[in-house]
Amino acid sequence: MIKSMTGYGMGEFSNEHFKFKVEIKAVNHRYSDISVKLPRHINYLEEIIKKNIKGRISRGKVDVYINLEYINESAVDVKIDTPLAKSYKEALSNLLIELNMDENIRLNNILSIPDVVRTERKELDQDMVWEVLSKALNLALDNIMIMKETEGKALRMDMLNKIDNIEGFVQKIEDRAPVVVLDYKAKLKERIKNLLEDNVPIDEDRLSNEVAFFADKSSIDEEIVRLYSHIKQFRSILDEDDSVGRKVDFLIQEFNREINTIGSKANDIVISKYVVDLKSELEKIREQIQNIE
């Protein structure tokens, strides 16, 4: 199934301790490039997150944003440095005496001093963290895959329409090819007749040899056969379940090679026009391929 490289998916999951929100954004890219942004104290999960994403998304630039919200206050320890607080209180009291000031020292004066109150995050149960995060991650992946597959269906239909157009132009070139040789023979015969005197006969054997040489030199039968084969392969690849982006990208290069050969060998203005039409349709397909996984 064709999948677009662009998409967005979001997933949330929580337990009694914390809640994870995962957002995944993907855009087209030649290779697989995954970037994960998550809280620093769970950085150890980055590689397993990437591994899970690679199992679902084979190509494209993927940005993953992970937010962790603590639900249970017991996940954080609050610690007060009592000796430090006493030292500050004593120092402030002495300062008031030295300055001969009649003021009271309040608790908030002490608590606002750096390092008197510290918050420390309790050590997390790594298995529990991954259990919750993986569920949020899979929900986000499910959602982004829905979007990628929906857009992929539209891309597939568009490319099939364009490959139908290409097949039509190839058929026109195939029909035109024999006429090119007949036109060449008629024009050559007329040219020779104009050059010779009226009473000098045309050497039909030499004329036939010259026409045969031209027909062999300008033959595009092999290129047409290969183009039909490429068209059949293209349609078959679009029906595959695996990632097809690189396959069709390579096949388009083969299309282009055969079309260029036809353009250089045909030596006919009508076929040259069809070659231009073929290249135009091929370029449209190439642009679409840049968006499929």
Automatic annotation (TrEMBL):
Its cofactor is a divalent metal cation. It comes from the Bacteria. Keywords: Endonuclease, Hydrolase, Nuclease. InterPro entries: YicC-like_C (IPR013551), YicC-like_N (IPR013527), YicC/YloC-like (IPR005229). Residues 2-156 form the Endoribonuclease YicC-like N-terminal domain. GO terms for molecular function: hydrolase activity; RNA endonuclease activity. It holds the Pfam family YicC-like_C. Belongs to the YicC/YloC family. This is YicC family protein.
